[in-house]
Structure prediction request, 115 residues.
Amino acid sequence: VQLQASGGGLVQPGGSLRLSCAASGSTFSINTMAWYRQASGKGRELVARFTNGGSTNYVDSVKGRFFISRDNAANTLYLQMNSLKPEDTAVYYCHAATWGGMTSWGKGTQVTVSS
Prediction:
């Protein structure tokens, strides 16, 4: 499975962005998909994900502001980010795990929240 993330950029505090992650290859084998982020000098953290049951999980710091969604027909995962804060600044990565336990990472997309 190959993943291509896009949609990052520079936004002012309080603004919104929508990230997209297009999946290609053996997309039929995908079990779960998620968004992670890594701020400068910090470890990578899970931001939002779909579980294999179809439910969603969010890290506490983005609950109520970020929303994960997907278009199965287009093999695309989205992350709608609202009310952005400077602490949301990071490189955002798309992740997929297959039923067979393989994992894939997309190249990150930079999100910078600054006035």
